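Ticket #4471: structure output looks truncated?

Reporter: J.K.
Steps to reproduce: submitted the chain below (142 residues) through the standard prediction queue, then opened the result file.
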Amino acid sequence: MNAIDQKLDSSAAHAALEAVARAFAGGPHRVDLACDTGLDLPAGDVAALGEIAAVAVELTIARAFPDGRAGHVWIRLTRDGGRIKLSVSNDGMGAPEDAPEGFGRIEALAARLGGFARVGARLFGGSEIAVVYRAGQDLSRA
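Returned output as attached by the reporter:
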């Protein structure tokens, strides 16, 4: 088993996403993290999810909170049946009409995971960037 296929428990995914939350917390932005327990993910997934979260939070802060406006960002990693979902949502300005610059990196990483990425408005304001993929995909094809 190579390092990219090695299964890591949910604490590894939580630690990777917590590092992202800490990197962007402070100032006028609050960044919270919620991660389902029992997510045993391959190391390659954890690395990709960490990178996706970092890019998504950076895009979120730049687009949703212009001019240093205060706001709240939520990072969530969940499992729903056989699907894994990483979402970065906020209570800032609504979703952009076009995908934000830099979203292509998120789409490429989502495709590598065998999934898809989307950006859209949240029901009661703000926006969400989400990546969904089927758990257990073989990353060696990328």
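Triage note (M.O.): checked the attachment and the full token line is present. The longest strand covers residues 71-80.
Status: closed, working as intended.
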